[in-house]
Specification:
Blueprint (H helix, E strand, L loop, with lengths): L1 E6 L2 H16 L3 E7 L4 H7 L5 E4 L5 H22 L3 E5 L2 H10 L2 E5 L6 H7 L5 E5 L10 E4 L18 H5 L8 E6 L16 H10 L3 E6 L19 H7 L2 E4 L2 H9 L4 E4 L5 H8 L4 E4 L4 H12 L4 H14 L3 H20 L3 H4 L3
Helix pairs in contact: 1-2, 1-13, 3-4, 4-5
Length: 357
Protein backbone atom coordinates (compact mmCIF):
# COMPACT_ATOMS: atom_id res chain seq x y z
CA UNK A 1 0.00 0.00 0.00
CA UNK A 2 1.00 3.64 -0.37
CA UNK A 3 1.05 5.89 2.69
CA UNK A 4 1.70 9.61 3.03
CA UNK A 5 2.75 11.01 6.41
CA UNK A 6 2.72 14.76 7.03
CA UNK A 7 5.00 16.44 9.57
CA UNK A 8 4.40 19.96 10.88
CA UNK A 9 6.01 19.87 14.33
CA UNK A 10 9.03 18.18 15.96
CA UNK A 11 6.69 16.02 18.05
CA UNK A 12 5.21 14.58 14.86
CA UNK A 13 8.63 13.21 13.90
CA UNK A 14 8.96 11.38 17.20
CA UNK A 15 5.41 10.05 16.95
CA UNK A 16 5.70 8.65 13.43
CA UNK A 17 9.32 7.55 13.20
CA UNK A 18 8.77 3.99 14.45
CA UNK A 19 5.55 3.45 12.43
CA UNK A 20 7.32 4.72 9.30
CA UNK A 21 10.14 2.21 9.78
CA UNK A 22 7.75 -0.67 10.49
CA UNK A 23 5.54 0.11 7.51
CA UNK A 24 8.57 0.15 5.22
CA UNK A 25 9.83 -3.11 6.75
CA UNK A 26 6.43 -4.64 5.91
CA UNK A 27 6.85 -3.68 2.25
CA UNK A 28 4.68 -0.56 2.13
CA UNK A 29 5.64 2.66 0.35
CA UNK A 30 5.83 5.62 2.73
CA UNK A 31 6.26 9.22 1.55
CA UNK A 32 6.99 11.88 4.18
CA UNK A 33 6.27 15.57 3.61
CA UNK A 34 7.19 18.25 6.11
CA UNK A 35 6.91 21.90 6.98
CA UNK A 36 9.82 23.64 8.68
CA UNK A 37 8.97 24.09 12.35
CA UNK A 38 11.54 24.49 15.09
CA UNK A 39 13.84 21.41 14.83
CA UNK A 40 11.45 19.16 12.87
CA UNK A 41 13.70 18.95 9.82
CA UNK A 42 16.79 18.39 12.01
CA UNK A 43 15.00 15.44 13.62
CA UNK A 44 14.01 13.92 10.29
CA UNK A 45 17.63 14.10 9.22
CA UNK A 46 18.90 12.76 12.57
CA UNK A 47 16.63 9.73 12.24
CA UNK A 48 17.54 9.31 8.54
CA UNK A 49 13.93 9.61 7.37
CA UNK A 50 13.56 10.44 3.68
CA UNK A 51 11.37 13.51 3.33
CA UNK A 52 10.53 16.55 1.25
CA UNK A 53 10.07 20.01 2.75
CA UNK A 54 7.01 21.73 1.29
CA UNK A 55 6.86 25.00 3.24
CA UNK A 56 8.84 27.18 5.63
CA UNK A 57 8.22 28.40 9.14
CA UNK A 58 5.66 30.95 10.27
CA UNK A 59 6.18 33.69 12.85
CA UNK A 60 2.57 34.77 13.45
CA UNK A 61 -1.00 33.51 13.07
CA UNK A 62 -1.35 35.56 9.88
CA UNK A 63 1.77 34.08 8.31
CA UNK A 64 0.70 30.62 9.51
CA UNK A 65 -2.41 30.86 7.32
CA UNK A 66 -0.29 31.64 4.25
CA UNK A 67 2.24 28.92 5.05
CA UNK A 68 -0.54 26.38 5.63
CA UNK A 69 -2.16 27.22 2.31
CA UNK A 70 1.16 26.78 0.52
CA UNK A 71 1.78 23.50 2.32
CA UNK A 72 -1.65 22.09 1.42
CA UNK A 73 -1.37 23.05 -2.24
CA UNK A 74 2.05 21.46 -2.61
CA UNK A 75 0.94 18.39 -0.66
CA UNK A 76 -2.03 18.01 -3.01
CA UNK A 77 0.25 18.11 -6.05
CA UNK A 78 2.66 15.52 -4.61
CA UNK A 79 -0.07 13.24 -3.33
CA UNK A 80 -1.94 13.27 -6.63
CA UNK A 81 1.11 11.69 -8.27
CA UNK A 82 1.48 9.11 -5.48
CA UNK A 83 -2.22 8.14 -5.28
CA UNK A 84 -1.94 7.17 -1.59
CA UNK A 85 -4.25 4.75 0.17
CA UNK A 86 -3.88 6.62 3.47
CA UNK A 87 -2.66 10.06 4.52
CA UNK A 88 -1.75 10.13 8.22
CA UNK A 89 -1.01 13.08 10.45
CA UNK A 90 -1.28 14.61 13.89
CA UNK A 91 -3.92 17.35 13.89
CA UNK A 92 -4.42 16.54 10.27
CA UNK A 93 -5.82 19.70 8.68
CA UNK A 94 -3.79 19.35 5.48
CA UNK A 95 -3.99 15.55 5.51
CA UNK A 96 -7.78 15.49 5.83
CA UNK A 97 -8.31 18.17 3.18
CA UNK A 98 -6.00 16.60 0.61
CA UNK A 99 -7.24 13.04 1.22
CA UNK A 100 -10.85 14.13 0.72
CA UNK A 101 -9.95 15.67 -2.65
CA UNK A 102 -8.09 12.57 -3.85
CA UNK A 103 -10.37 9.81 -2.58
CA UNK A 104 -7.72 8.60 -0.14
CA UNK A 105 -8.43 7.77 3.50
CA UNK A 106 -7.25 10.21 6.16
CA UNK A 107 -6.10 9.05 9.59
CA UNK A 108 -5.73 11.76 12.21
CA UNK A 109 -4.23 11.44 15.68
CA UNK A 110 -4.87 14.16 18.24
CA UNK A 111 -4.84 14.77 21.98
CA UNK A 112 -5.26 18.53 22.45
CA UNK A 113 -8.85 19.47 23.27
CA UNK A 114 -8.40 23.24 23.35
CA UNK A 115 -6.84 23.49 19.85
CA UNK A 116 -10.27 24.39 18.48
CA UNK A 117 -9.04 25.99 15.25
CA UNK A 118 -7.28 22.80 14.19
CA UNK A 119 -10.19 20.56 15.12
CA UNK A 120 -12.75 22.75 13.36
CA UNK A 121 -10.70 22.82 10.15
CA UNK A 122 -9.61 19.19 10.16
CA UNK A 123 -12.11 16.93 11.93
CA UNK A 124 -15.06 17.35 9.53
CA UNK A 125 -12.95 16.05 6.62
CA UNK A 126 -11.14 13.21 8.42
CA UNK A 127 -12.13 9.57 8.01
CA UNK A 128 -10.77 8.27 11.31
CA UNK A 129 -9.68 10.30 14.34
CA UNK A 130 -7.67 8.40 16.97
CA UNK A 131 -7.57 9.89 20.46
CA UNK A 132 -6.37 8.68 23.86
CA UNK A 133 -9.07 7.26 26.13
CA UNK A 134 -8.67 10.34 28.35
CA UNK A 135 -9.47 12.79 25.52
CA UNK A 136 -12.41 14.81 26.82
CA UNK A 137 -14.30 15.55 23.60
CA UNK A 138 -16.77 13.24 21.91
CA UNK A 139 -16.25 13.37 18.15
CA UNK A 140 -18.74 10.79 16.95
CA UNK A 141 -18.59 7.62 14.90
CA UNK A 142 -15.21 8.42 13.30
CA UNK A 143 -13.48 8.54 16.70
CA UNK A 144 -11.30 5.60 17.81
CA UNK A 145 -10.16 5.71 21.44
CA UNK A 146 -7.10 3.82 22.68
CA UNK A 147 -5.42 3.30 26.08
CA UNK A 148 -2.26 5.31 25.63
CA UNK A 149 -0.61 8.66 25.02
CA UNK A 150 1.16 10.11 21.99
CA UNK A 151 4.40 9.95 23.94
CA UNK A 152 4.18 6.15 24.17
CA UNK A 153 4.68 5.94 20.39
CA UNK A 154 8.36 6.69 20.99
CA UNK A 155 9.02 6.44 24.74
CA UNK A 156 7.43 3.07 25.50
CA UNK A 157 10.14 0.86 27.08
CA UNK A 158 9.97 -1.43 24.05
CA UNK A 159 10.95 1.57 21.89
CA UNK A 160 13.31 3.64 24.00
CA UNK A 161 16.27 2.93 26.27
CA UNK A 162 17.73 6.11 27.82
CA UNK A 163 21.40 6.74 27.11
CA UNK A 164 23.35 8.06 30.14
CA UNK A 165 26.06 9.43 27.83
CA UNK A 166 23.70 12.34 27.10
CA UNK A 167 24.52 13.72 30.56
CA UNK A 168 28.21 14.05 29.77
CA UNK A 169 27.36 15.99 26.61
CA UNK A 170 25.77 18.77 28.70
CA UNK A 171 28.31 18.65 31.53
CA UNK A 172 26.20 16.80 34.10
CA UNK A 173 27.75 14.24 36.42
CA UNK A 174 25.56 11.09 36.78
CA UNK A 175 25.35 11.65 40.55
CA UNK A 176 24.31 15.30 40.27
CA UNK A 177 20.58 16.01 40.82
CA UNK A 178 19.27 18.29 38.12
CA UNK A 179 16.08 19.87 36.82
CA UNK A 180 15.04 20.43 33.23
CA UNK A 181 12.95 23.59 32.92
CA UNK A 182 10.93 23.97 29.73
CA UNK A 183 9.75 27.52 28.93
CA UNK A 184 7.21 27.81 26.10
CA UNK A 185 7.12 30.44 23.39
CA UNK A 186 3.32 30.91 23.66
CA UNK A 187 2.98 31.47 19.93
CA UNK A 188 0.66 28.60 19.01
CA UNK A 189 -2.94 29.35 18.02
CA UNK A 190 -4.26 27.74 21.21
CA UNK A 191 -1.85 29.78 23.41
CA UNK A 192 -3.32 33.18 22.56
CA UNK A 193 -4.05 35.13 25.74
CA UNK A 194 -1.94 32.90 27.99
CA UNK A 195 1.54 33.20 29.42
CA UNK A 196 4.03 31.44 31.66
CA UNK A 197 6.60 32.26 34.33
CA UNK A 198 7.08 36.03 34.48
CA UNK A 199 10.45 35.75 36.26
CA UNK A 200 12.54 32.79 35.02
CA UNK A 201 15.49 34.07 37.04
CA UNK A 202 13.57 33.49 40.27
CA UNK A 203 12.68 29.96 39.09
CA UNK A 204 16.34 29.12 38.48
CA UNK A 205 17.41 30.59 41.82
CA UNK A 206 14.77 28.64 43.76
CA UNK A 207 15.73 25.34 42.15
CA UNK A 208 19.43 25.98 42.73
CA UNK A 209 18.73 26.78 46.37
CA UNK A 210 17.14 23.32 46.60
CA UNK A 211 20.39 21.74 45.43
CA UNK A 212 19.50 21.20 41.79
CA UNK A 213 21.57 21.94 38.73
CA UNK A 214 19.28 23.70 36.25
CA UNK A 215 19.07 23.11 32.50
CA UNK A 216 16.86 25.55 30.59
CA UNK A 217 15.08 24.60 27.38
CA UNK A 218 13.46 27.82 26.21
CA UNK A 219 11.57 28.80 23.09
CA UNK A 220 12.59 32.31 22.16
CA UNK A 221 15.25 34.50 23.71
CA UNK A 222 16.50 34.60 27.29
CA UNK A 223 18.05 37.44 29.27
CA UNK A 224 21.86 37.49 29.18
CA UNK A 225 22.18 36.21 32.76
CA UNK A 226 20.14 33.10 31.92
CA UNK A 227 21.85 32.16 28.68
CA UNK A 228 24.49 30.00 30.44
CA UNK A 229 21.66 27.76 31.71
CA UNK A 230 20.35 27.06 28.21
CA UNK A 231 21.90 23.75 27.23
CA UNK A 232 22.78 22.55 23.76
CA UNK A 233 22.20 18.99 22.67
CA UNK A 234 21.12 17.33 19.46
CA UNK A 235 17.31 17.30 19.25
CA UNK A 236 17.17 13.50 19.28
CA UNK A 237 18.92 13.41 22.71
CA UNK A 238 16.40 15.49 24.67
CA UNK A 239 14.52 12.44 25.92
CA UNK A 240 17.71 10.96 27.35
CA UNK A 241 18.02 14.04 29.54
CA UNK A 242 14.37 13.92 30.59
CA UNK A 243 14.74 10.29 31.59
CA UNK A 244 17.71 11.01 33.87
CA UNK A 245 16.46 14.29 35.39
CA UNK A 246 15.45 14.54 39.03
CA UNK A 247 12.43 16.64 38.11
CA UNK A 248 11.04 18.38 35.04
CA UNK A 249 9.28 21.73 35.36
CA UNK A 250 7.47 22.55 32.14
CA UNK A 251 5.10 25.11 30.68
CA UNK A 252 4.58 22.72 27.76
CA UNK A 253 2.28 19.73 28.09
CA UNK A 254 4.24 17.49 25.72
CA UNK A 255 7.53 17.83 27.60
CA UNK A 256 5.76 17.22 30.91
CA UNK A 257 4.03 14.11 29.54
CA UNK A 258 7.27 12.82 28.03
CA UNK A 259 8.98 13.04 31.40
CA UNK A 260 6.03 11.39 33.14
CA UNK A 261 5.88 8.33 30.88
CA UNK A 262 9.65 7.96 31.33
CA UNK A 263 9.15 7.82 35.10
CA UNK A 264 10.56 11.28 35.84
CA UNK A 265 8.22 13.38 38.01
CA UNK A 266 6.95 16.34 36.00
CA UNK A 267 5.36 19.59 37.12
CA UNK A 268 3.12 21.13 34.46
CA UNK A 269 2.48 24.88 34.89
CA UNK A 270 0.04 26.19 32.33
CA UNK A 271 -3.48 27.70 32.44
CA UNK A 272 -4.68 25.06 29.97
CA UNK A 273 -5.55 21.60 31.25
CA UNK A 274 -5.73 18.57 28.96
CA UNK A 275 -7.21 15.13 29.35
CA UNK A 276 -3.83 13.42 29.36
CA UNK A 277 -2.16 15.84 31.79
CA UNK A 278 -5.03 15.38 34.22
CA UNK A 279 -4.94 11.59 33.89
CA UNK A 280 -1.17 11.43 34.40
CA UNK A 281 -1.74 13.48 37.55
CA UNK A 282 -4.83 11.87 39.05
CA UNK A 283 -4.37 8.27 37.90
CA UNK A 284 -0.60 7.80 38.05
CA UNK A 285 0.88 10.62 40.13
CA UNK A 286 3.72 11.10 37.67
CA UNK A 287 2.67 14.58 36.57
CA UNK A 288 1.50 17.43 38.79
CA UNK A 289 -0.82 19.85 37.02
CA UNK A 290 -1.10 23.48 38.12
CA UNK A 291 -3.48 25.64 36.08
CA UNK A 292 -4.96 28.19 38.52
CA UNK A 293 -3.96 31.75 39.39
CA UNK A 294 -1.29 30.58 41.85
CA UNK A 295 0.07 28.00 39.41
CA UNK A 296 3.56 29.51 39.14
CA UNK A 297 4.20 29.63 42.88
CA UNK A 298 2.55 26.31 43.68
CA UNK A 299 4.17 24.52 40.74
CA UNK A 300 7.64 25.75 41.59
CA UNK A 301 7.29 24.68 45.23
CA UNK A 302 6.05 21.24 44.16
CA UNK A 303 9.10 20.85 41.93
CA UNK A 304 11.35 21.70 44.87
CA UNK A 305 9.59 19.25 47.19
CA UNK A 306 10.17 16.36 44.76
CA UNK A 307 13.90 16.52 45.51
CA UNK A 308 13.29 14.86 48.89
CA UNK A 309 11.09 12.03 47.61
CA UNK A 310 12.55 8.56 46.93
CA UNK A 311 13.25 7.55 43.32
CA UNK A 312 11.49 4.21 43.93
CA UNK A 313 8.18 6.06 44.11
CA UNK A 314 8.37 7.13 40.48
CA UNK A 315 9.70 3.77 39.30
CA UNK A 316 6.68 1.94 40.76
CA UNK A 317 4.24 4.41 39.29
CA UNK A 318 5.82 4.16 35.87
CA UNK A 319 5.64 0.36 35.96
CA UNK A 320 1.90 0.57 36.58
CA UNK A 321 1.44 3.07 33.76
CA UNK A 322 3.30 0.88 31.26
CA UNK A 323 1.26 -2.17 32.33
CA UNK A 324 -2.00 -0.26 31.73
CA UNK A 325 -1.13 1.36 28.39
CA UNK A 326 -0.30 0.13 24.89
CA UNK A 327 2.65 0.50 22.55
CA UNK A 328 1.14 3.33 20.51
CA UNK A 329 3.54 2.90 17.56
CA UNK A 330 2.17 -0.61 16.99
CA UNK A 331 -1.36 0.79 17.17
CA UNK A 332 -0.52 3.42 14.52
CA UNK A 333 0.68 0.72 12.12
CA UNK A 334 -2.47 -1.37 12.67
CA UNK A 335 -4.74 1.62 12.12
CA UNK A 336 -2.99 2.61 8.89
CA UNK A 337 -3.09 -0.92 7.48
CA UNK A 338 -6.74 -1.40 8.46
CA UNK A 339 -7.78 1.87 6.85
CA UNK A 340 -5.82 1.10 3.69
CA UNK A 341 -7.55 -2.27 3.43
CA UNK A 342 -10.95 -0.63 3.80
CA UNK A 343 -10.11 1.70 0.93
CA UNK A 344 -9.07 -1.22 -1.28
CA UNK A 345 -12.33 -3.02 -0.53
CA UNK A 346 -14.35 0.07 -1.37
CA UNK A 347 -12.53 0.38 -4.71
CA UNK A 348 -12.82 -3.31 -5.66
CA UNK A 349 -15.45 -3.93 -8.36
CA UNK A 350 -18.53 -5.86 -7.30
CA UNK A 351 -19.71 -9.02 -9.01
CA UNK A 352 -22.42 -7.06 -10.78
CA UNK A 353 -19.85 -4.63 -12.15
CA UNK A 354 -17.53 -7.35 -13.45
CA UNK A 355 -20.23 -9.70 -14.71
CA UNK A 356 -18.81 -12.59 -12.70
CA UNK A 357 -20.52 -14.32 -9.77
Amino acid sequence: MRVVVTIQHPGHVHFFRHPIAELEDRGHEVSVFARESDVAIDLLEAYDIDHEVLAGESDSLLSLAAVQATYELRLLRRARRIDPDVIAAIGGVAAAHVASMLGAKSLVFYDTEHASLITKLGYPFADVICTPDCYRDEIGSKQVRYPGYHELAYLHPDRFDPDPDALEAVGIDPDTPFAVVRLSGWGASHDVGHDGFDDPRAVVDRLEDAGLRVLLAAEGSLSADLEPYQFETSPDRMHDLLAHATVVLSEGATTAAEAAVLGTPAVYVNPLSLGYTTELDEEYGLLFEYTGEERRVRGLERAVSIVDEPAETWERRRERLVADRVDVAALVVRQIETLAQSREKSRSPTAAETGHP
